[in-house]
Every structure is written in structure tokens, then in C-alpha cells.
From TrEMBL:
Name of protein: Inositol-1-monophosphatase
Keyword flag RNA-binding: no
Native source organism of the sequence: Melaminivora alkalimesophila
Keywords attached to this entry: Hydrolase, Magnesium, Metal-binding
Enzyme class: hydrolase
Gene Ontology process terms (BP): inositol metabolic process; phosphatidylinositol phosphate biosynthetic process; signal transduction
Lineage: Bacteria, Pseudomonadati, Pseudomonadota, Betaproteobacteria, Burkholderiales
């Protein structure tokens, strides 16, 4: 398979496998891994840092004139103001990893003048390699993948991510899930957005939505989805979502059914929709006392927590 791939994608695969080997070795004795906390419920390990170093070294050895945007080191490495920028999450699902929960992966994307052209998402625990090049389709190992063919939301399995940081709008997110769950066959929370998007691309799930994601969480997975025939955007269905910290991905029919449900929870929703959501939350569980600070408004979660690292776009 590798002989037919774009050279830059081959280098990304090499980098992802190198990181995956480090992660798998560390997973044999995960309790010995040093863990530090970036903020509450947001962890980084020595494995994240070693995997990121291995990825960056591999990429810059092959392409020293390229730029880097990585979760742990930001844009410290690589050329500045380059047209070619590698977007890296060395260990997506760190919390899963440090608990020995085997759902995590390596995410690498190459953006050329702001548009993602190549993508790799690698699951080291299963040795599953998801790849895509713009215009050439998406693959899982040697097999071409496509999004699911389900047309009814009631028959669909969706994945999501739960808010977990101070400042997240918990009540609004619970209301959103309450709107979605009764309309579907099930809702899952695996804890690794890059793999969630890869699973939509492979048809394992029919859709995915989450707020508060950074560029490195979604860059590679979003290309997998579109190259597999799916759609990706923000909660209102707009395609320019990469820096907006909310992501919706699904096959086209399910995507069209999710936008009217999730759109009112977007930070880009109309004032009327936001007011209706606030009213629904107030009627369900009136905010009072110390909990009131977390009730917020539907568009607060993305703006109130950290805004992420600088983007090359």
C-alpha cells in the first residue's frame, strides 16, 4: 500500500508508527509513567512529550522547511510562516492512557496554505492505521472506507465528548444530550476525538459531535470523514469549523438531521435559539447558589475556557 501513497503521507505514517511504538511500550507499565496536570482534568505525560518529539523529528528530518503546530510544544519547532504546516496530537486520549483504558491514538495532519491535504490517525493498541489524502479517499489499513449508509437518526449510533474542565457549560451540554439521546439508537463517549472522527469515516458510528476541541483534535479526522463521503462542520452546519471549537461530523443524511437539533446550542446560534435553550435549562433545573456559575449560556463554554494554541490558518 505504502508505495502508492503520497510521499508526505508516507512520512506521516512513519512518524505515527514511531510514536505508537513509544506509547505501546509505556502502556506495559502505565503506572510508572510520570503525569503532570495542565489544568483540572487536563493531563500531559512524559509519553505525550516523547511521542511528540519523535513525530516532529521524523517530519522535520524529511521536510525541514515545514512548520509545526503541536499540542504540547505549540509552534516552537519548524519553520515560521511556512505554507506547509504539520498539525500534531501525539497522544489523543491521554486521560484514557493513564488509566489503562485502551482508547487513544496519534493524530497527524498536513495543512497546505490553511487546507488539510493529508491525514493519519493511528490506534497503537489495535495497530489500526487510518489515512487520507485529499481527492484520493480514506483508508483503514489496506481497505477503502466509507461513512455509513444509515438514513434515519433513530437507527444511528453517535459518539460525543463530555465537558470536563472548569468553565465548561455543563447544564447546556446535558440539555443538548437530552435532546439527542432519545432520537438515536445510542450515544457513546470514548474519550479520543481523533478516533471518534475516524470511526465516523469507517462507518463504525453514524455521527459525532463535541464542543471545546482544538485544531489538533480534529484536523486529521475531519479529512478522513470528508474523504469517506461524510460532512464536517460546526453545530450550525457551516464548514469553516476548524478554529471554532465545536465539531459535528456524520454521513450526509444524518448530518442534515443533527444540524436542526444541535444548531441551537452553537455559539453561532440566533439570539432567539439561545434564549429558548436558557429557558429550557431554567425550567428543568433553576440555577441557584454555588452551581449558578456553571449554568452559563449555550455559547459560553468555548469562549470561557482556554482558547487553544495559535493556529496556522
Amino acid at each position: 500500500m505504502s508505495s502508492c501513497l503520497h510521499p508526505m503521507l508516507n512520512v506521516a505514517i512513519k512518524a505515527a508508527r514511531a510514536a505508537g511504538a513509544l506509547i505501546n511500550r509505556a502502556a506495559l507499565d502505565v503506572e510508572a509513567v510520570r503525569v503532570s496536570q495542565k489544568q483540572i482534568n487536563d493531563f500531559v505525560t512524559e509519553v505525550d512529550q516523547a511521542a511528540e518529539q519523535a513525530i516532529i523529528d521524523t517530519l522535520l528530518t524529511a521536510y525541514p522547511s515545514h512548520g509545526i503546530l503541536a499540542e504540547e510544544s505549540g509552534s516552537e519547532r519548524g519553520a515560521k510562516n511556512a505554507d506547509f504546516v504539520w498539525i500534531i496530537d501525539p497522544l489523543d486520549g491521554t486521560t484514557n492512557f493513564i488509566h489503562g483504558f485502551p482508547v487513544y491514538g496519534v493524530s497527524i495532519a498536513l495543512a497546505v496554505k490553511g487546507r488539510v491535504e493529508h491525514a493519519v490517525v493511528y490506534d497503537p493498541t489495535r495497530n489500526d492505521l487510518f489515512t487520507a489524502t485529499r481527492g484520493r479517499g480514506a483508508f483503514l489499513n489496506d481497505r477503502r472506507i466509507r461513512v455509513s449508509k444509515r438514513t434515519r437518526l433513530a437507527e444511528s449510533l453517535l459518539s460525543t465528548g463530555f465537558p470536563f474542565r472548569p468553565g465548561d457549560d455543563f447544564k447546556s451540554y446535558l440539555r443538548m444530550m437530552a435532546d439527542v439521546m432519545p432520537r438515536t439508537a445510542g450515544l457513546r463517549r470514548a474519550g479520543a476525538a481523533a478516533l471518534d472522527l475516524a470511526y465516523v469515516a469507517a462507518g463504525f458510528t453514524d455521527g459525532f459531535f463535541e464542543a471545546g476541541l482544538s485544531i489538533w483534535d480534529v484536523a486529521a479526522g475531519s479529512l478522513l470523514v470528508t474523504e469517506a463521503g461524510g460532512l464536517v462542520g460546526n453545530f450550525t452546519g457551516e464548514a469553516d469549523f476548524m478554529e471554532q471549537r465545536e465539531c459535528l461530523a456524520a454521513n450526509p443524511r444524518i448530518y442534515g438531521q443533527l444540524v436542526p437539533i444541535l444548531g441551537k446550542y452553537s455559539k453561532f446560534a440566533s439570539a432567539g435559539d439561545k434564549a429558548a435553550v436558557r429557558q429550557a435549562i431554567a425550567e428543568q433545573e433553576p440555577a441557584s447558589g454555588p452551581d449558578a456559575a456553571t449554568s452559563g449560556t449555550p455559547d459560553a463554554s468555548s469562549d470561557e475556557r482556554d482558547s487553544g494554541s495559535p493556529s496556522p490558518f
